[in-house]
Design a protein that fits this description.
single chain, 462 residues, Aspartate Aminotransferase, domain 2, seven-stranded mixed β-sheet, 42% helix, globular
Length: 462
């Protein structure tokens, strides 16, 4: 009897929710069913998902930003097929691989000139864990400073740098000597660094939770303060990197040179997990300073051939299809077009971001009728208004989006970087319609709002 993945898919095409309910996270299934996202997707191409009825959905979620080049890109598929059929030696461990050397070479062409060494791992959180260890060993200091509302991963070291309390609660004790400061607050940062006992300051150039942008002088001053106090400057580009913000790295918008750059997500091409840390030669040579320390830090699958091939193919696609440039032009157009609506809709505060990392923020309106409706939702659960926009976007306009974080009235867009002008028009027109509907009281969308509020209050009581 032969083994066939295609046959397994055919046999169990409608079983996924039952399987997850029984064997995995049943709360995820219940959440999807509650908000009406329980679709059976059959196919994915580029920026589009297709369900079993053939309905096309525009994916502005892209797997938390993983699918920067879109899903199932033929160039990456071909590279992986070749890698599988070449019968290459893989993970010999007492050896070094060609593909990891080539990927390191190509990546370091894109980073500031002070970062000229690479370490590979499997994910963003592993990259952050590595940066913590490298910083402590290099500086012989223990403390790590991070930003409030920052997101750096969910393993124990990365979780210790988590700026969102909901992810930390109940998982302690976490790493000691991890200190938070407000994002975009240079005075607080200098106070934290001034005792010269901080190993590293780790920061997302643009915060993922909320898409919070720094002031123009923030990151340059971060770099200056870190040098002044002997602290390593670590840029977490796991979400912002690889073209997401209209530059290859988000740090390029401000011309700064971190000591380490953490990366992952988009580098995988959406197929094989790959993470990495670009760093200065000094850091690499300090950590791996003797032959008996050659394996003092590593990751078993970190340089596997499939991951390295996916990374190389992804970089080729990004350059060949000019996706960084497309991210900047189409993303800026979307932001500007959404901002043009702010005078028309009381609920709409602003759109902001860089490239195709976009936030649409809502706020309390001035009109008494609208304000009363807003207050009802906020009392049930802060940030619930956004669900009144994202659910119709999905059900009526077939656009998949996400809320930017817990308790936020912000919707975040992390679309594939290959959006077309047609996609841009679809996004702008769909948001226009969905936001307009929220201003109609009474209306069907506020019936949805009442149902959401009811569920939220019930969950609070539970």
């Amino acid at each position: 009897m032969t083994f066939s993945i295609a046959e397994l898919f055919a046999q169990h095409s409608t079983d996924k929710f039952d399987l997850h309910e029984q064997y995995l996270n049943k709360q995820m299934v219940r959440m999807l069913q509650t908000i009406g996202y329980d679709r059976h997707y059959k196919r994915a191409v580029g920026q589009y998902l297709y369900d079993q009825e053939g309905t096309e959905f525009l994916d502005l979620y892209s797997g938390f930003g993983v699918f920067a080049i879109g899903r199932n890109h033929p160039t990456v598929i071909k590279a992986l097929q070749e890698t599988l059929t070449l019968e290459l030696p893989n993970l010999v461990q007492l050896d070094v691989s060609i593909l990891s050397g080539l990927l390191a070479k190509e990546l370091l062409k894109t980073t500031p000139e002070n970062t000229n060494k690479m370490f590979f791992c499997n994910s963003g959180t592993e990259a952050v864990e590595s940066a913590i260890k490298f910083a402590r060993y290099t500086t012989k200091r223990d403390k790590i400073v991070f930003c409030e509302h920052g997101y750096h991963g969910l393993t124990m070291g990365s979780l210790s740098l988590m700026g969102e309390k909901i992810f930390r609660e109940g998982f302690g004790p976490l790493l000691p000597d991890c200190i938070s400061v407000p994002f975009n607050d240079l005075e607080a940062l200098e106070a934290a660094l001034s005792n010269k006992d901080v190993a590293a300051f780790i920061v997302e150039p643009i915060q993922g939770k909320g898409v919070n942008l720094p002031d123009d002088n923030y990151l340059p001053e971060v770099e200056r303060l870190c040098k002044k106090y002997g602290t390593l400057f670590v840029a977490d580009e796991v979400q912002t990197g690889i073209g997401r913000t209209g530059k290859f790295w988000a740090i390029d918008h401000w011309g700064v040179k971190p000591d380490m750059i953490c990366m992952a997500k988009a580098l995988s091409g959406g197929f094989v997990p790959v993470g990495g840390v670009a760093m200065t030669e000094k850091i690499m040579d300090t950590v791996f300073n003797r032959m008996d320390r050659a394996v003092v830090h590593g990751s078993t699958f970190g340089k596997n051939n499939m991951a390295m091939a996916a990374g190389l193919a992804t970089l080729h696609v990004i350059e060949n299809e000019k996706l960084v440039e497309n991210s900047l032009s189409v993303g800026t157009d979307i932001i500007n077009s959404l901002n043009a609506m702010s005078g028309q809709y009381e609920f709409l505060k602003e759109a902001r971001g860089k490239g195709m990392m976009i936030a649409i923020e809502f706020n309390s309106p001035k009109s008494l009728k609208l304000k009363a409706a807003w207050t009802m939702l906020e009392a049930a659960n802060k940030g619930l208004f956004c669900q009144m926009v994202t659910i119709p976007l999905f059900k009526e306009h077939h656009i998949l989006t996400q809320v930017a974080g817990h308790g936020m009235n912000v919707i975040k867009l992390l679309p594939p970087l290959n959006l077309t002008q047609k996609d841009r028009d679809n996004i702008v027109n769909s948001f226009d319609k969905a936001i307009a509907d929220t201003h109609q009281i009474p209306g069907s969308i506020w019936d949805l709002g009442k149902n959401l509020a009811s569920h939220a209050l019930k969950n609070k009581k539970t």
